[in-house]
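User: Hi! I'm working on a homework problem where we have to compare a predicted structure to a textbook description. Could you give me the structure for the chain below?
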Amino acid sequence: MARFRNKKRKVFVKPVAKRKQPSVDHITGDKIPKSFVFSRGKLPNSLRQLQMDLRKLMLPYTALNLKEKRRNNLKDFLNVAGPIGVTHFLILSKTETAPYLRYSLAVDIARSQVRPRCPQDLFKNSPLIVLSGFGTGKQHLKLVTVMFQNIFPAIDINTIKLSSCQRIVLLNYNKETKLIDFRHYSIRLQPVGVSCRIRKFVQNHQLPDLRTLQDVSDFVIKAGYGSESEADDEAATVSLPSDVGRVNRASTKSAVKLQEIGPRMTLQLMKVEGLCSGGVIYSEHGIRQHLFGV
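Assistant: Happy to help. Predicted structure tokens:
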């Protein structure tokens, strides 16, 4: 008797189309800056981790899984950057002595905190940027200011959504030491006058433990109307024009909390020069030339 073979059916899986990132802001009409974060030469493990931390910081308009090879040079990245709209390069390299860069990784900062905070949707939007101490009138500091201002997308205060403002990058220039402090924080809003118990109950939608209480009202009364451990500063409270999340409602006061997520860096400006041209605009050692060698 003949046997019938079971034919294997091929299962066709429809590929999921990746959402293409826009190159122009649909509201302001400005070009959205994009970046590459890569290295030149062999790096130790700590600098490799710093490279990944910087890629996460530059999200969503950066190549998080950028693959680089030893034979790649700077011109290779330039040839790729043009067609996909990349405007900035962040390049890491190792020298024998590097006194102009001191850093702490994001994982080290998280370990030093009692309650580290890093929600999943924290990196869906670009961070805000705040510059301090750069208004000295010097030409090289003006160039640094313009570079940091244009490395992230510009915002329109009339159309921006408060829910998209979840991160902030702070840069402070010290005139005496000529060092730049680089900090990366997450922004968190807390309603003023609401206790920690009530706030967690609304946010998490988890039933509290009422076994030791006689009535539900005991839970509210025991929670109180404020938290002594988290005192609300009047200078750090704002009135929201729209709802943000489940707890923070419009026309109510909320406290703005910043929590560092890293990486933390201390930078020093050593040289400003043209890309692939060799012309030095500024040097810490006193060498000043025009961009085209005039």
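For your comparison, note the following. Residues 15 and 104 are 40 Å apart (CA to CA). Confidence is low (pLDDT under 50) at residues 224-232, 288-294. Good luck with the assignment!
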